[in-house]
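Nucleolar protein 10: structure tokens wanted.
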Amino acid sequence: QWLSDRKKRALQKKDVDIRRRIELIQDFEMPTVSTKIKVSRDGQYIMAVGTYKPRIRCFDTYQLSQKFERCLDSEVVTFEILSDDYSKIVFLQCGRFVEFHSQHGHYYKTRIPKFGRDFSYHYPSCDLYFVGASSEVYRLNLEQGRFLNSLQTDAAESNVCDINPVHYLFAMGTAEGKVECWDPRTRNRVGLLDCALSSVTADTEIDGLPSVSALKFDGALNMAVGTSTGQVLLYDLRSSNPLIVKDHHYGLPIKSIQFQHQLDLIISADSRIIKMWNKDTGKIFTSMEPEYDINDVCLYPNSGMLMTANEAPKMNIYYIPVLGPAPKWCSFLDNLTEELEENPESTVYDDYKFVTRQDLENLGLAHLIGSSLLRAYMHGFFMDIRLYHKAKMMANPFAYEEYRREKIRQKIEETRAQRVQLKKLPKVNKELALKLIEEEEEQQVTRKRKQRNLPSLLKDDRFKVMFENPDFQVDEQSEEFRLLNPLVSKISEKRKRKLKILEELEAREQEEEEEPEGKASDAESSESSDDEKGWVEEVRKQRKLLRQEEKVKRQERFKEDQQTLLKPQFFEIKEGEEFRSFKDSAKKQKLMKKTLGDRLKLEEKLGTLNVSDTTVGSKQATFKLKKSEQQRKQQEAEKQHRRERKTLRRSANHLKSKRGRGRLFH
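Answer:
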């Protein structure tokens, strides 16, 4: 405030916050003041009303710009978006007018008997419920296009109303501090809450009778009520007592209440502050105090974005990553916030230094309090940085020597921290742990400034078991390990020597020397280069050794086979099958290895399969099962038996006919 305009412009160039500022939606503002702001159900359009002149502006989030602007005859008290997009909007205006807009613009205009303050839309019956400076609740049916019988309440005036999205209970907040609940099906009052009495607790101080200034349902059972004295009451509809009472401590009317379900938060706002607090405990999560007074707050669905309508041309947009992800139309905000967290930069004022009263006493400048050299700010003062440096040099002339000693001590501590810690070597896979430590030391020497510090396997909890459980011990004698690591023999010998030295030091329990470790000698570097040149030779040696080991194993197996005696094996034949030879089983195995197409061709040749086309266009396959020898013999025996019975029957019939003829002649 006390800086000149030129100084302010110079600071703005250096200010990191101004350079980071992002304009999400182009011209997201009103000419003078914005009063209400809402988001369509599909999330594509943001609508705001304001003055002056009275108007509505619709912003398309997919285009990040303004879609249209419409001027109105009078100021808007509140408005509601009836459709998923901007095609159906209802405005409640100051002059008792209710104006309907369609996609092309103004559609119809009507008037209610008394001045309205709020309204709600009942989707099942297409009714608009208007409350205002009257004891009646006016009902306008949009399907029939006429007013219905109004609801007669006990209140003199009503301020706000809302409809539960689950069971469609209609609730209205009165000027006497009560909430009346009505059933739209029977048009009867089903409940009455005295919020004014419940909002007064031992810690609150009020100047008058609290009236209800905000009302919002959450689910089927929860309801939040805001009062004109700055209290927010959370109710369960099954109880007349509030679950929790939260005071803003400003004594200003609550303008807006929103529910954030991911973190179970309630976002309540008056004209000065926005508070986010836990709905179960009442603990404050965070709070925001904009520069200008707040008229309305809108939470973008399923995200961490918050928009406010203010007593200023600019409408504010806040993004809080903890509340949720960024909307899909500005998903780049997530990447930006991650980059800002990785590279935090603090605001530095080059020309001024902030000091407290204790700092001034230590510097001997307490007598300057009240003069033009010190500017009071919060719990301290701003002073010129040149004066601060001069006073510090006079008060402590040996400050540079102390700073130099501290830097030297820090460097020594860093070198000590880079050493191998003897006590931290694990019991399992010691050589692997030593290898990882050596690689970390090499990376610290060759690492660039911009590269990140990668986590160590020794400190990672996911790989903790590998250095504790003996089952994870690396087997260096296995074939895979020797082929994949052909130079491991030479390197492992070095590490084994180093391990022996470390174990001896542990046994003796000697303290570490303070001198820093030296760099690797030229001999070691030459050895490593020789190892790289002899890589192929080492692989060949390993392969020869593996072949020799295989030959030895084969000879041992051959000797064991000669010593063992062969025993006869017995096979069991299934019932109904005859054993011919082992060739049949071999043929079956060959047949099973063939593809289905080859087997079908073979079956067609043998005559056991018949494939024919049908009239529909598909194919029909007919199978004939093969008969075993036993089944064939049985069928032949049955045929022979039938033949014998036929011959017997014929002979018997022949004899009967002969006997009949003899009796006739007799």
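The first strand starts at residue 33 and ends at 39. Residues 352-395 form one domain.

Cheers.
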